[in-house]
Amino acid sequence: MNATDLAFADHSRERLDALAVLADRVLSECRGRGADQAEVTCTEDTGLNVSVRMGEVETVESTRDRGVAVTVYFGRRKGSASTADLREESLRATVEQACAIARHTEDDPAAGLAEPELMARETPEFDTWHPWTLDADRAIDLALACEAAGRELDRRIANSDGASLGTGSSLGVYANTHGFVGRERSTQHSLGCALIAGEGDAMQRDGWYSLGLAADDLERPEAIGRRAAERTVARLDPRRIPTGEYPVLFAAEVARSLIGHLLGAISGSALYRRASFLLDSQGQRLFPDWFAIHERPHLRRGLRSSAFDAEGVATRESAIVEAGVLQRYVLSSYSARKLGLRTTGNAGGVHNLDVAPNAGDLRALLQGMGRGLLVTELMGQGVNAVTGDYSRGAAGFWVEGGEIRHAVDGITIAGNLRRMFESIEAVGSDVDTRSHVRTGSILVGRMTVAGEA
């Protein structure tokens, strides 16, 4: 990807200025209708997406979306409305609708803006703006090159699910009646390929993709295609394994799902609804004493870096897990009030998370495991958020003597998340950077694996 492709007239700051003016007009309309508090989000998104399959173009889609979402509070009564029509009469009608909803709702003691003293005082950028001036023809060429490299690598690649390229930019302004105005701009680009190897009932599918905020962060199309092919061919001739209890190594690209289950269980909405297996777990040891997860919202070129959350609350670096102990929950101002706690600056979700490694790369983890299952794909949604019971379809590779011996599919792995967290033996240094949850492979010491009877 050539950095010279990025040179163009950038009007993003002027567009942010216009969105800020729009937000101020909407807030003035809210005040004029008697709202005690109000907040508004104005967004403008653009994108280009292309897909190809078997050397032919399948889709080309250019998008341009914009919208305004407004929330008003009359005391502790809340109303929200949104529109994609930015004409004055439409904006007035949207505010009127939000006010009408608020006047007909019941009081909610937890409703309202976040406290004014929590608003971010500074809103620096974190190098998240890298537009890619890519026309459709060039995007198609890159996708075709990616797929061709994969299809040509091995004669066993019999078919393709295609290659796709996406590039997008997002501008946003959040403002509220505390006087806070926050501006953000970000870009994201991706290129991926999925291939099919084998024939008939013996066919296997896999793929690979690259993602980044800047075009120069992406792997080369040919490298992506070749890796997709290598992963696909490696899955041929899978065998079943006997049902039993084995160590399970979650490859980095699926290991982040384990962290996702933790985040779901410690989110404010799950806690105040009492729909979590980690109720009243703050301050408890959930993981081995070396395990740590840190939130880093101010990471330069982080996929989810921001100086403020969706309510304007200042973000800060902090530990979610330290020395194996759960340090805090993940709360917005609303969920915090429901729980009698204080917001953690996570309205809208978590920002960049780093799971601290204590081991080497994937090869080192395989050698350390010795014998067990390497999971590279998970299927199904068999996780009970209330009990923590875990059961999912899986595919991957059987490992003997620290080496991959053969592919495995058609199996189920099962356990309980609390016990799985306690049984984590290693986190690898092979961090997958394609997500805001940045973790290496995770080795769980023992799980039930349902294979052959």
Portion of residues in helices? 10-25%
The low-confidence runs, each spanning 5 or more residues with pLDDT under 50, are 1-7
The CATH class assignment of the largest domain is: Alpha Beta
Given the C-alpha coordinates, what overall shape results? globular
Secondary structure: number of strands: 17
Mean pLDDT: 95
Instruction: State the helix count.
Output: 9
Q: Mind telling me which CATH architecture of the largest domain this is?
A: 2-Layer Sandwich
For this entry, give a set of tags.
single chain, alpha+beta, PmbA/TldD fold, 2 domains, six-stranded antiparallel beta sheet, 24% helix, disordered N terminus, metallopeptidase activity, PmbA protein, TldD/PmbA_sf, TldD/PmbA_N
Describe it.
- Belongs to the peptidase U62 family.
- One of its GO terms (molecular function) is metallopeptidase activity.
- Residues 130-236 form the Metalloprotease TldD/E central domain.
- A hairpin with a 2-residue loop joins strand 2 (56-74) and strand 3 (77-83).
- This protein has 9 helices and 17 strands.
- Helix content is 24%, strand content 35%.
- It has 2 domains: 3-233, PmbA/TldD fold (2-Layer Sandwich), CATH 3.30.2290; 238-453, no CATH class.
- The protein is of the alpha+beta class.
- Strands 3-2-1-4-5-6 form a 6-stranded antiparallel sheet. A 5-stranded mixed β-barrel has the order 7-12-13-14-17. It has a 5-stranded mixed sheet with strand order 10-9-8-11-16, with helices on one face.
- The N and C termini lie far apart (50 Å).
Concise synopsis of the structure shown:
With 453 residues, the protein is an alpha+beta fold. It contains nine helices and 17 strands.
